[in-house]
C-alpha cells in the first residue's frame, strides 16, 4: 500500500498515540512535493513490518497546535513514537531503507 | 490522499493509441522497429502515445534500448528501480510493465514484492547495486538531499562515475514514462498480465 491514512481530528490523534508499540507519524502539508515522495516510503516500512510498526500522516497546516507542540519546523518531518511517547524525529526525505535503519537503531536503545 | 493511480478504466486515453494495423508513415516505422526488437505485437501503449510525435518516440525508444542493453549495471537492478519508482508514482501500468520485466530479468515473486516495498536487501542484488537502489530512491525523493557522505558510501561499495549516471538515467527514464502514462491516462498493454490492476487493489484497500 503506497498511502497512509490521515489523522484528521484530535480524537484520532489521541487514539493513535494511545496504542502500544511503534508509530511513525508523517507530518506533511498538501503543497509539499517532497512530502508526496516520502509518503510511500513511510507506508512501505509499516506494510512490510509484520505489524511491528504502524504509520499515519498528519497535515501540519490543519493541526497547527499539534505542530507547535511538537516543534515542527518544516515538512516533511517524521515523528517516531513508542507507546505514545515521542522518542525521535527526522526531517526531510528518507528512503524506506534509511527509515528501517533508523527505527532499528531506536529499537535497540 | 496525495495523488491517484494513473489508470482510470472508465476514461479513454487522452491521445489516440493508433493500433498496429492502422499505423502509417513515421509511426509505422517506429512500430516496425519495436516489433523487430521486442517481438510481434509488442508495441506498448506508452510508445503508441509517444508516437503522436514520431521522431521523439524513436529517440526515446533508442535511449531506452541504450539504457537497458549497455552499461555496467544489471538489467534486474534497472527494472527493480523502475518497478519501485512506478509504485512510488502510483502508475499501475508502469508497475505491471516493469514488474513483468523484472520477472523476466530473473526476479522471483518475493523479489518483485521487495522492490515494491523499496527494500533492496531482499531483491538479490550485489552490495553495490543495493546501495545504488537506495541512491536512486533518494535522488527521486529529493536530489538536493544527497550529500558527500552518500557518494563516499557508494564509492566504498565500488560505484563508478558511470554507475551513478546509469542509475540516475534509470530514474529519469522511469519517471518520464510514469508521467506520460499518468498525464495521458494510458492503460496497461493487453500483452501484460503480471501485477496488472495493482491500482484497483490499492483503491479497494484505501
What does the model show?
The complex is a heterodimer of chains A (109) and B (206). Helices cover 39% and strands 25% of the residues of chain A. With 109 residues, chain A is an alpha+beta fold. The longest helix of chain A is centred in the middle third of the chain and has 15 residues, at 33-47. The radius of gyration of chain A is 13 Å and the shape is globular. The termini of chain A are far apart. The model of chain A has no long low-confidence stretch (mean pLDDT 95). Chain B is 61% helix and 0% strand. Chain B has helices at residues 25-38, 45-50, 54-69, 75-88, 92-104, 109-116, 127-141, 148-156, 161-183, 198-205. The radius of gyration of chain B is 17 Å and the shape is globular. The model of chain B is unreliable at 201-206 (pLDDT under 50). Chain A binds chain B through residues 1-3, 6, 28, 30, 34-41, 44, 47-48, 92-98, 100, and chain B through 1-3, 87-88, 90, 116-121, 134, 137-138, 140-142, 145, 202, 205-206.
* Low-confidence runs of at least 5 consecutive residues of chain A: none
- As residue ranges, the low-confidence spans of chain B are 201-206
Largest sheet of chain B: none
Task: Tell me the number of strands of chain A.
Answer: 4
Shape of chain B: globular
Helix content of chain B: 55-70%
CATH superfamily of chain A, by name, is Glutaredoxin
Largest sheet report of chain A: 4 strands, mixed
Order of helices and strands of chain B: HHHHHHHHHH
Oligomer: heterodimer
CATH topology of chain A: Glutaredoxin
Structural category of chain A: alpha+beta
Order of strands, widest sheet of chain A: 2-1-3-4
* Domains of chain A (count): 1
Secondary-structure element pattern of chain A, one letter each: HEHEHEEH
In DSSP terms (H or I, runs of 4 or more residues), the helix count of chain B works out at 10
Return the average pLDDT of chain A rounded to an integer.
95
Distance between the termini of chain A: 29 Å
Amino acid at each position: 500500500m503506497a498511502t497512509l491514512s490521515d489523522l484528521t481530528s484530535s480524537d484520532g490523534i489521541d487514539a493513535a498515540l494511545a496504542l502500544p508499540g511503534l508509530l511513525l507519524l508523517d507530518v506533511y502539508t498538501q503543497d509539499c512535493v517532497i512530502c508526496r515522495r516520502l509518503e510511500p516510503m513511510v507506508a512501505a516500512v509499516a506494510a512490510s513490518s509484520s505489524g511491528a510498526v504502524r504509520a499515519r500522516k498528519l497535515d501540519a497546516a490543519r493541526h497547527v497546535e499539534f505542530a507547535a507542540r511538537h516543534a515542527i519546523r518544516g515538512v516533511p518531518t517524521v515523528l517516531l513514537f513508542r507507546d505514545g511517547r515521542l522518542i525521535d524525529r527526522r526531517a526531510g526525505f528518507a528512503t524506506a531503507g534509511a527509515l528501517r535503519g533508523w527505527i532499528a537503531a531506536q529499537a535497540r536503545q | 490522499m496525495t495523488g491517484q493511480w494513473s489508470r482510470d478504466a472508465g476514461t479513454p486515453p487522452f491521445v489516440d493509441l493508433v493500433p498496429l494495423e492502422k499505423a502509417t508513415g513515421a509511426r509505422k516505422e517506429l512500430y516496425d522497429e519495436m516489433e523487430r526488437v521486442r517481438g510481434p505485437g509488442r508495441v506498448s501503449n506508452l510508445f503508441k502515445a509517444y508516437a503522436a510525435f514520431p521522431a521523439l518516440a524513436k529517440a526515446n525508444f533508442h535511449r531506452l534500448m541504450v539504457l537497458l542493453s549497455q552499461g555496467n549495471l544489471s538489467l534486474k537492478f534497472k527494472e527493480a528501480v523502475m518497478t519501485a519508482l512506478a509504485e512510488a508514482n502510483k502508475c499501475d501500468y508502469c508497475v505491471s510493465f516493469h514488474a513483468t520485466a523484472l520477472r523476466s530479468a530473473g526476479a522471483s515473486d518475493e523479489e518483485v514484492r521487495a522492490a515494491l516495498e523499496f527494500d533492496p536487501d531482499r531483491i538479490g542484488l550485489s552490495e553495490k547495486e543495493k546501495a545504488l537502489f537506495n541512491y536512486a530512491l533518494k535522488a527521486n525523493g529529493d536530489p538536493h538531499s544527497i550529500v558527500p557522505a552518500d557518494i563516499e558510501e557508494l564509492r566504498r561499495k565500488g560505484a563508478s562515475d558511470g554507475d551513478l549516471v546509469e542509475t540516475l538515467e534509470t530514474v529519469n527514464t522511469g519517471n518520464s514514462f510514469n508521467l506520460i502514462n499518468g498525464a495521458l491516462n494510458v492503460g496497461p498493454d493487453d500483452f501484460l498480465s503480471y501485477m496488472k490492476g495493482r491500482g484497483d487493489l490499492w483503491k479497494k484497500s484505501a
